[in-house]
Amino acid sequence: MSQSTTQQSGGGVPSRTAAAKLSRPIGWTCVYRKLTRGWPRESRKELRDPPKILELDRVANEEVKRVRDMTHCQDVVCVSVLGTGIFGEEPNIIHPIVRIHTIDATTGHYLKEIKKPGRTGHHGRASSLQISSPGGDIGVDGINIPILSVTPVSTAPCHLKGLSVAPTWKETSIVGIPYRCLLDPNVIILFEVVDVNHIQSSSQHHDQRGDGVCGLAWAYLRPVGINGDVLINTSKPAMNTSTLESTTNKSGKDVKQQSIQLQLYKYQALSSLASYQAHRRGIFSPPAPATSKVPAVYLQYLQKHWIKHTTTLLVQINPVPQHEGGVVAFHEKGFLCRSSISSKGGACMTSDARMPAARLLRGLRTRRLETECCVLPDCFLCRINPGARGATTIQFSPQGRLLAVAAVELLCHPIRLYDVTGMDEGMLSPGVSSAASAATVYGLQVDQSHEGALLVADLDGHHGMIYDLRFTDNERYLLSASADALVKVWDLGALAAVSASVRPKYAPRMLCIFHEPSAQFFYAAVFFMKNNSATRALPLYTQSKEDDGKNHQRICPHVLTGAFNGAVAHWDPRTSQCQGLLGNRIAHKGRVHCLESDRRSGRVFSADSNGIIFVWRCERDGDYPSDFTIIRKIEHRDFRNKPIVSMMIRPRRRRVQLLVQAQASTLKLVDVTTSQPVVHFKGNLVRAGVIKAKFSPDGTYVLAGSEDGKVYAWDTVSASPVSFLDGKFGYSAPLCDLSFHPKQHLVALTCFGGDHPVLVYCTNRPDTPKLLDGQAGCDARATKDQPNEIKARHKALSYQLTTGSN
């Protein structure tokens, strides 16, 4: 025993001091030394020590005191974010926002609210957070936790139209602290530019945060310098209802000339050593939804090495007066908004801004009446960046208020709803508002002065590729079929195209899920309704006998799905259960790629991967699978063993005709009565992909995508090619789907397989539009009075834009 001990200790018995050292636990200092000692010098991304408390000398102190006396004690901080330069190195930016944090530079903590005696404004009152116990109902057994620190503020997302466009916000926000609190040398304002999309950029400087945003760049501003120089404005901006105008302060300087240009720095991912240092100092931000007193961007400020970005950030900081009653008036995107305190102590936002005349004028110029023929677009309107790999399918809603985009991200497939057109109450049904206006009901602040597409909802979507999207006529429900063996029905809530008296007040959400493991893939889904049953299935609500009209139960139409196993299933949304298979058997021997429902005749058309089309007839109301029987099988030699990937019923025709797109570049118009093709369309390339072809709303034109990234157009009757923007859109991947706007001369195009946007093209309404066949004399008032109303409205909006009046 002694020999082994002697060998281990290098000869001799170990002393008590050495034994005590061996038994001592390793402390944080030892761990820190081991980390730094074994770390490569070039990759040591350490954090520097926080700044020490800065005390100004007598001269600098007097200068700051003089500036402080120029402001009123009741003034609050007003921060205006104007914009940045072009993010040329960031090609995947879609919706950047700017967050503003007002902190103590020595600790990184947010500034605390400062309460003053007497009347207090909204900056002097502490906010509160209500937490409900897990065992009780929401709001019943709750705890009010006061939030004494100043919460960060952020701008609205900036919708970029292209890679060469600089983000511009021109948005003003109120920070809940007195303006004099900024005149402290230890106060610092941190600005961070983050993106709310899910696209992972190739840049190594990005920081994927746990709160769902991606950090792009950051900047800092010390309101008071070391020598007492005040770098922020002390004069108040002009307050009017049009836009932020320049004012003149006592020194005669223009406020517009006092904008501050800040250098942006790139976000850097924290190293293991920097994360350890942050944990040790207690300034590490926990993952969402937990919050911290220290913002995550403060760790970027403490990095030893900063990497300059190629662009800068332009901001303005001014004092604004506090109005009586705790109301502060400020400008947001050119419109006068008011932030007030409700009776329960929460902030409520009201806006006097209406939809800008420019957006309404554009919607009026592209409007199409029901009796007029469609005109193919000839100019570019806007672009939508849906996802990292484009979008698989798109669909305009029946009234044109929404554009549903099935985006493709790296890990998920969300469904995003956009308001593309400027439609007011005069273009819609009575009592129906535009989607952007309806989104404000559930708290989404949409910049309606933006001329491009407005994102009004972002649904979770699926984990597999989305093949089909369908709306109900009242735009209350949205149906999505995906390759993850799920079909989802979405309740659009406040976005429904119904009267405001019965319209829900909540945001879009999922209503039910249809799941069938044996189906493996769902390629198609459709709402089934007959004309005689439309009055029973379409109403938004039905009153229950038990509640005597006080409560309501939602009714959603029945759903038919086409799956990988060849089954056409019947689903009940009220129970989320499969009622059975149409015909009580699997009729198709191949994959069911397409489903179409003809409400007028009550027929359903299903097409599979073997080139066979089945025609189903509904004997009753269609509430049960047994109501459907096969009445015809369309099997033509031109479609034999060719997967049918797209099918659409020709509009405005008594005799049913189907536009059938199959692989091997086969596109034909098939007469259902004779089961024979009547028109052949040639030109587009469809070899192995899912490429769709669509009719124009009046049935005059046929447009189809192609694997070469082009759009091909034909006249429906003669099948002669029609020029459509030369067919070139810059797509290097297959152009897989397109959608016509039902009430405007608009067409949306999408591409799958690359970082390609959704392109929207438009054209103005002709001065003498061509009328549809049979409409020359049957609807004289629609063809005479409505164009006069459009011209009068067009003249009024043009005058409003010229004069700048509301």
Question: Would you give an account of this structure?
Answer:
- The termini are far apart.
- With 806 residues, the chain is mainly beta.
- Strands 1, 2, 5, 6, 7, 8, 9, 10 and 11 form a nine-stranded antiparallel sheet that branches. The protein has a four-stranded antiparallel sheet with strand order 15-44-43-42, with no helix packed on it.
- The chain is built from ten helices and 44 strands.
- The N terminus is likely disordered.
Number of strands: 44
Cα distance, first to last residue?
98 Å
Helical content stands at 10-25%
What is the residue-mean pLDDT, rounded to a whole number?
75
Strand content: 25-35%
Give the low-pLDDT segments. Answer: 1-26, 38-43, 114-146, 198-205, 238-257, 324-355, 533-553, 776-784
State the major sheet: 9 strands, antiparallel
Number of helical stretches of at least 4 residues: 10
Which features characterize this protein?
10 helices, 806 residues, elongated, disordered N terminus, nine-stranded antiparallel sheet, mainly beta
Short structural description:
The protein is mainly beta. Helix content is 12%, strand content 33%.
Structural topology:
Elements: H1 2-8, H2 16-23, H3 28-37, H4 58-69, E1 76-84, E2 96-104, E3 127-132, E4 142-147, E5 153-154, E6 168-178, E7 187-195, E8 207-208, E9 214-221, E10 260-266, H5 272-281, H6 297-301, E11 308-320, E12 328-332, E13 335-341, E14 347-351, H7 357-365, E15 379-384, E16 391-396, E17 403-407, E18 413-419, H8 435-439, E19 454-462, E20 466-471, E21 477-482, E22 486-491, E23 509-515, E24 522-528, H9 534-537, E25 541-543, E26 552-554, E27 558-563, E28 568-572, E29 577-581, E30 592-598, E31 603-608, E32 612-618, E33 628-635, E34 644-649, E35 657-662, E36 666-671, E37 676-681, E38 693-695, E39 701-704, E40 712-715, E41 721-722, E42 735-740, E43 746-751, E44 758-762, H10 780-803
Antiparallel strand pairs: 1-6, 1-11, 2-5, 2-7, 3-4, 7-9, 8-9, 9-10, 10-11, 12-13, 13-14, 15-44, 16-17, 17-18, 18-19, 20-21, 21-22, 22-23, 24-27, 25-26, 27-28, 28-29, 30-31, 31-32, 32-33, 34-35, 35-36, 36-37, 38-39, 39-40, 40-41, 42-43, 43-44
Helix pairs in contact: 7-10
